[in-house]
Amino acid sequence: MSEKINNCYFFIPARKGSKGVRLKNRKLLHYTINSIPEEYRHLVYISTDDEEIKHKSIELNINVISRPIDLAADESSVLPVIQHFIDTEDVPADKDIILLYLTYPERTWSDIIKIYQFYKENSATSLVCAEEVDKHPYLCFYEESNLKGRLMINHKLYRRQDYPKCFKISLFVACYKSHVINKDMHDLLVEKDTIFYKLNQTKIDVDLQTDFNLITKRI
After folding, report:
1. Residue 53's closest CA among 28, 32, 26, 34?
2. Taking the model in full, what pTM does it have?
């Protein structure tokens, strides 16, 4: 197993602020860290502006990167945060970066390795996960004034079986060659050669207090 992951870093973004759940990343930190075997924790880097997360991470043998204030705002994209990590640590262009959001506390080490192996087997430069959609985008409308709406995707199909297959992005686990983290990458962390790993079930992405309450009951 070790030879499969000897050219990668695990990267965890963990800013202090959160609108949906107060200090969410502090509360979720241990789920992700505990899922990573101690023998690999020297390969883990966490980018944060939270002093408590920094302190806990150092205690657990996790490398800490101090996130600049301008990269820790509510509207900040994670893309420049990863770029900051690459620049700060002088990450080689051919190094693999495995992105692990703290908001997926159900994720296991087995999940991480399985998805990373899929990425390697397909000689990919970037990978994100995919989930089935519960509502097809052909049924969605933009909300307009005067109680009106406009189709998000202009089409004339009525029968659902005629709708094209689609999926939604999930950042349950994401993998990248360091060199693809650049200005050509979308803020959703995909690029033209991104491949998708289809998850067999929907994973809870903790955003609201109801998500957090559900997770604490299940784990």
Report:
1. 26
2. 0.91
